[in-house]
Design a protein that fits this description.
alpha+beta; 19 strands; binds uridine-diphosphate-2(N-acetylglucosaminyl) butyric acid
Length: 302
Amino acid sequence: MRISDPKLLTSLAELGVELRPVAKLSELTSLGIGGTTDLLRITKHESIPDLLQLLDANHIPHKFLGGGSNLLVNDGELPWVILQLAPPEPGVVLEGNLAHVDAAADLGRTVTFCAKHDLGGMEGLIGVPGTVGGALRMNAGAYGMQIGSYVREVKLYRAAIRQIETLRGHQISFEYRHTSFAADDMMLAVILELPSKPYNEILKGIRICNEKRRSSQPLGQKSAGCIFKNPPGASAGRMIDELGLKGLTVGDARVSDRHANFFVNTGRASAKDMLALIADVRERVQKAYGMALENEVVVWNG
Ligand code: EPU
């Protein structure tokens, strides 16, 4: 979708919104898949309510993009524009055990920054790509921890009431790869309350998680992490592996040879290829195990 109305372009500039025309989602997602559309970069949180009102008034649908690391986007010209927060400087401000983090801050860098100031707890998330906002929305977790456990407060744009709001941690429910945020809520900032730990000890934990991840996941390849959630009491990766589906391909979309719940883009996979592979694997698991696998990856194919 292209924004070309000169009046609208002026209003966007007045709101401090930067237009990046014809952005390629294949370059903005870790899977390397996705078509093109205009990207609007937001430099001031306070401008968001006015921005969304402006887009609505001009009948321009939109989607919020975080770090693009858990996302499968359709091919071709996309029927909505993308909104993305400009990365802040600095992304993290510490106050005792509290870390005030902007949603656009890089997750890995945030974990390392906090570690260097003797704040731990998030070691498991060290190799997870993406932004803190994305991790928060999905309640990202690994190696026995999840980010939701450390959330004290979240600042978000609530689309339903068209306002910026602050929620306390106990007002939000954090479950396995799921939160009570609405699909159109936009994460803006979070306050994490992290346990004090000496840097050396945190570093040890980080090294262990890094090693585990390196040995079991296809880190150098284009992927969106795990494609399916683990059903209660079962492992999606193990089931797919047991069915001998590692290496199964549709075009350049392939079930990883290293971890069967990672589907990788080995070249120029399209969203159509990846979706066909997901549907095929889901059907085979359903037939063999009687279990309906639910997507972990977020799909924008509307
Ligand atoms: N397994 C296989 N074959 C495979 C993959 C896994 O047999 O191809 C077996 C493993 O040997 C192990 C079990 O399945 O016994 C579980 O595997 P793993 O430890 O790799 O964990 P997972 O359940 O597949 C989850 C998260 C990952 C997270 C790791 C580490 C989900 C869907 N996945 O994977 O998160 O990094 O644990 O904590 O919850 C993600 O969310 O995108 C993600 C990658």
